[in-house]
Amino acid sequence: MSVIDTFDVHCHIHETPGTLGVLDNNKNIAYCVQATRYTDWDSVAQLKEEYSDRIIPAFGLHPWFVEQVESGEIPETWRSRLKLLVTKHGGIVGECGLDRAARNPATGKQYPFEPQIVLLKAQLAIAHELDVPISVHCVRAFGALADVLQAAEAAGTLPPRIMLHSYSGSPEMLQQLFLRGELGARVYTSYSRIVNGRNLQKTLQCIRVMPHSRVLVESDLHDASTTALALDQAIEMVAEAHGWLLDDARRQLAENAQAFFANK
């Protein structure tokens, strides 16, 4: 039996089922497969059932679909269904978050921001209630995200662990907004080559700012056949940031992921 030594903490491989055959070969990799919309929760649950030992399912509503919540296209019962799926399948909450850059391709308009905050708060509350980690997307909204998380900290309702996935803010933001108090003890940052490789020097600085035990890597990809290479490249970034050997970086990152997903 293969030993898992690499964790892809954020991917969407359920969206390209034709590539999933590679999971039969990549038996050393565990995948946290992140649902983003109400209609793909079942496919993530099915993937967990098919590859139970190497899939950590994540169920959430991405900010890009907030208008479907507002319009009622996503039923009001979504919260209870999300709780049921997370509990039944041993999952986490995600992908959720805030996005001030993306636009609805149908209208060309940015997604409404205040409803995004409401949607994020609801999912944070579920993660706290179920005592499970959460995976958070954030683009050009780090101040607002910090406000939401700090309010949850003050109320004693933070989830046990919080992943800022493909973190694209600055190292100064990490130190000033996210690495203080109880929140600072629960935050992990994850890095992908596809997103964070665009500004490698800033990414290396962010990795160095984080405690060694709370850095993660991800592919953030949809095609399962491309994830192994993407993960190797992300691991190389962490090794470069700290001057580590690749094997040492892989070992540390696996330990970090195991801690993040503890009891999942």
Automatic annotation (TrEMBL):
InterPro entries: Metal_Hydrolase, Metallo-hydrolase/TatD-type, TatD-like. Transmembrane segments: none annotated. A divalent metal cation 1 binds at residues 10, 12, 95, 220. Keywords: Metal-binding. One of its GO terms (molecular function) is hydrolase activity, acting on ester bonds. A divalent metal cation 2 binds at residues 137, 165. PANTHER family: CUT9-INTERACTING PROTEIN SCN1. This is Cut9-interacting protein scn1.
